[in-house]
Amino acid sequence: MSTKAVIVFLRAPEKDKVKTRLSEYLNKSFVLELYKGFVLDTLDALKTAGDIILYYRPIKKKRMLEKWLGNEYAFSCQKGDNIGQRMANAFQDVFEDGYEKVLLIGTDIPEINDEIIELGFTILSTRDAVVGPSNDGGYYLIGFNKAVFSKGVFKNINWSTQHVLDETLDRFDMTKISYGCLPELNDIDTLKDLKALAKRVIK
Questions:
Q1: Phi/psi at 43 (nearest 5 deg)?
Q2: How many Cα atoms are found within 13 Å in the side-chain-facing hemisphere of 57?
Q3: Which end of the chain, C or N, has fewer beta carbons within 10 A?
Q4: If we measure between CA atoms, which residue out of 178, 180, 143 comes closest to residue 49?
Q5: pLDDT (tens digit, 9 = 90+) per residue, 55-108?
Q6: What is the DSSP secondary structure assignment for residue 73, as one 8-state letter?
Q7: Is the Cα torsion angle 97, 103, 106, 111 positive or negative in sign?
Q8: CA-CA distance, 46 to 65, in Å (whole number)?
Q9: How many CB atoms lie within 10 A of CB 102?
Q10: Helix 28-45 to helix 62-69 angle, to the nearest 10 degrees?
Q11: How does pLDDT run across 3-12, given as a tens digit for each residue?
Q12: Cα separation of 174 and 182, whole Å?
């Protein structure tokens, strides 16, 4: 078994249940296909990263995801009342399974690539934690070494605000967790985000 793992948080591919802020302005079938493309691009970037564990929502959708993505991945249902609890529980589960270095990402960063993932693990060779800032004040990636992980890092954070990254880094400093930062990338949540992405990638 590899000592490295990447946790991927994702949703089952259901129309009008994914990228809902985009669905307010764009055709729902198009948004679903866009989301599925984001997921497949993310998994493609992880091919050489170590073991991949897909933590899904909502419950009882494992069979749908296996039918779509195949059985080469491990699947587990997210547990917790908010995103902080769900991330903390996922890290704890994966570390208990014996992994030593673990990254967690979502599927709304289409510009993520294998080099960034590799850099994340490289940082964990010399630091306790790693974080990838996003332009909305949050982060698109967070990772830890097993020896220093504490679920407390995810407590009392004002989730879904522009303060998530700053509060998380403050928590690292308070608990003396050393960390490194990856290049900033952009979440694709809104129509404005999608238009900006198109300008960056379409020449």
A1: -65, -35
A2: 16
A3: C
A4: 143
A5: 999 999 999 999 999 988 999 999 999 999 999 999 999 999 999 999 999 999
A6: S
A7: negative
A8: 17
A9: 27
A10: 70
A11: 999 999 999 9
A12: 21
The C-alpha atoms of residue 129 and residue 153 are separated, in whole angstroms, by: 11
Name the phi and psi angles at 37, rounded to 5. -65, -40
The number of residues in the chain equals: 203
CA-nearest of 85, 77, 30 to 57 is 77
| Planar angle of CA 188, 192, 194, nearest 5 degrees | 45
Residue with tokens 């990263």: 49
Q: Evaluate whether 116 touches 6 at the Cβ level (below 8 Å).
A: no
Those residues whose C-beta lies under 8 Å from the C-beta of residue 27, and which sit 6 or more positions away, are none
Cβ-count burial of 162 within 10 angstroms (0-12 exposed, 13-18 middle, 19+ buried)? exposed
Token pair in block for residue 116: 């960034």
Read off the amino acid at residue 175: T
pLDDT of residue 201: 82
Contact 127, 180 (CB under 8 A): yes
Q: Which residues, in sequence order, are bridge partners of residue 11?
A: 57
- Could you tell me how many helices (H) and strands (E) the chain has, helices first? 7, 7
